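Supplementary notes for students who missed Thursday's class. We covered one full example, reproduced here. Read the sequence, then the structure, then the short commentary at the end.
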Amino acid sequence: MGTGPAQAASSPSVCIQAHVTDAGWQSQVCNGPNTFYYSGTVGENKAIEALRIKITGHGRFCVAAHLRDQGWHPGEKCFYDGAEVFVGTTGQNRPMEALTISVSSGSIVGAGHVQNRGWSPSKANNFIYLGTEGSALNLEAVAVGPNTW
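Structure (token representation):
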């Protein structure tokens, strides 16, 4: 896995852009059938505070973010194929600890980089959970794409 330039979105695809503590918005990355880039930081001990996520080619999708001291805030958000969703906060110093994504059609694959734990094993399904709850560990980077392997 590695960071890379934004890729042209083609169906199916997942585009992610992370807002990171003390760094602001990172470049958007788009993962399609042959790409798997991450957004966020690795080895810098900086939390993701917010994400912009756009999923195409998987029908309706739902996203939820677990924020430190807030829980699942504001709860699950669901959108239609191709919409861009914003989860988390900016300017409030509320680290994201976990993220869930579900799709109504097909399967997605994802991995999360958690503070002091590193990359989680990749998970593939129509529902994925990345990160931790109740451990006060930052979600520092995420990689999500269509499960086409």
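Commentary. The radius of gyration is 14 Å. The mean pLDDT is 92. If anything here is unclear, bring it to office hours.
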